[in-house]
Every structure is written in structure tokens, then in C-alpha cells.
Specification:
The complex is a heterodimer of chains A (113) and B (111). Chain A is mainly beta and 113 residues long. Helices cover 0% and strands 50% of the residues of chain A. In chain B, the strands form two sheets. In chain B, strands 2, 4, 5, 6, 9, 10 and 11 form a seven-stranded mixed β-sheet that branches. In chain B, strands 1-3-8-7 form a four-stranded antiparallel β-sheet, with no helix packed on it. Classes of the chains: A mainly beta (113), B mainly beta (111).
């Protein structure tokens, strides 16, 4: 089956620190990969995506590169802000039909001023 | 304009009751979903539905049933509610293979 493993938090950083949240996956086929962000009391927002090997997704200063050889999609940001505090989910979907998303367990990120 | 909207945002009800959550998307997507988020924030797909097929996660009790009056709507009906059904339920929609857009969630509390 398909699965996503991501580092569990909480992850606490100071403002302007460098962020990495690790994500690895297993999939039967060639998945598309996503990072979603959930702010307190809200739904999930698509942060970035990559659909094939070596693609780099980026948005709002966040980046992640689809690494097929290591089956990874690590999320990075060079300088975090307090407003980045949220729960981050790595997810995959296979391209056929209506598979839906398989999520990791989420990483709670706390940025301190 | 809200892309995926679901109502109600909060739902408190007693055990044994039957309730529904409504979802509408105005994105023109072919596929809609229901996800359950438990108290530990873990998200799991319950159903996916498009014009051609309904895919049901085998772990979902048959007390849960999706109803789709048209392509833009996918409602969730829950019969004989149990304490363990308390969670946040998210509706979402997508085009095939693309990222999904989520609603704001419905926090269901069964007392």
C-alpha cells in the first residue's frame, strides 16, 4: 500500500531560523507529492506540489524537491516567521482515478519570536 | 468566493442521532472527497466520488454514507452516531491527479 512518513513534532524554532521537515513515502506507482498547511481552526491549504521526479515545488518561500532515488519530499524554508506556525502535512496521490490523498501524520511547527 | 464550502462548521449531537453534513464546490472539479481528522490531527480518506464511481475506504462503518445530488455537491450522512465519531470532517475536491482543495471542516461532537 501507499504510505507517507514525516517527522513528528512539535518542532520549535526561533524566528529567522532555517526549517527542514522530512518526508519520505512508499507508493505502488508514480505518485504526485504535496505539502499542505493547516492553521489553527482552519482547513488544509495546498502549499506546494511536484508531479514527477526532480520537480521542485515552491510557494511563499517554502520549497520541496521530488527525489525518486530516496523517495523523499523534504520541506525547507530559509528564514521562518512567527506566522509560519501551523501543522504541515506531506501527502501523495496516484494519478489514476479518484484515489484521494494519503497523508503523513503532520508536523506541528512552532516559531518563537 | 469560497471554493469548497461545507456546513455546518460545528455540530453537537447526542448518541444515536442521525445527522448530515453538506458540501458544495464551485471549482468544476470532477471528484469530491470526505476526510476524517481525529484528535491527533491524523487525516484519513473516507470516500471519493466522481460521476463514474464511488470508492469507499473499507474501514469506514456503513453508518456513514455519501450522497451526491449533482457534480458540485457531496453530502455526508451519518446514522446512529457514536462517541467515537467525534472528529473534524473535511470535504475536498480535485481534478484527477491534482492537489485537492479543502473546505473549512465540520467539527462533530457526539455527547
Amino acid at each position: 500500500g501507499n504510505s507517507v512518513t514525516q517527522m513528528e513534532g512539535p518542532v520549535t524554532l526561533s524566528e529567522e531560523a532555517f526549517l527542514t521537515i522530512n518526508c519520505t513515502y512508499t507508493a505502488t506507482g508514480y505518485p504526485s507529492l504535496f505539502w499542505y498547511v493547516q492553521y489553527p481552526g482552519e482547513g488544509l491549504q495546498l502549499l506546494l506540489k511536484a508531479t514527477k521526479a526532480d520537480d521542485k515545488g515552491s510557494n511563499k518561500g517554502f520549497e520541496a524537491t521530488y527525489r525518486k532515488e530516496t523517495t523523499s519530499f523534504h520541506l525547507e524554508k530559509g528564514s521562518v516567521q512567527v506566522s509560519d506556525s501551523a501543522v504541515y502535512f506531506c501527502a501523495l496521490t496516484l494519478r489514476r482515478g479518484a484515489d484521494g490523498l494519503t497523508f503523513g501524520k503532520g508536523t506541528h511547527l512552532i516559531i518563537q519570536p | 468566493d469560497t471554493a469548497v464550502s461545507q456546513t455546518p462548521k460545528y455540530l453537537v449531537t447526542q448518541m444515536g442521532n442521525d445527522k448530515s453534513i453538506k458540501c458544495e464546490q464551485n471549482l468544476g472539479h470532477d471528484t469530491m472527497y470526505w476526510y476524517k481528522q481525529d484528535s491527533k490531527k491524523f487525516l484519513k480518506i473516507m470516500f471519493s466520488y466522481n460521476n463514474k464511481e464511488l470508492i469507499i475506504n473499507e474501514t469506514v462503518p456503513n453508518r456513514f454514507s455519501p450522497k451526491s445530488p449533482d457534480k458540485a455537491h457531496l453530502n455526508l450522512h451519518i446514522n446512529s452516531l457514536e462517541l467515537g465519531d467525534s472528529a473534524v470532517y473535511f470535504c475536498a475536491s480535485s481534478q484527477e491527479g491534482g492537489g485537492a482543495f479543502f473546505g473549512q471542516g465540520t467539527r462533530l461532537t457526539v455527547v
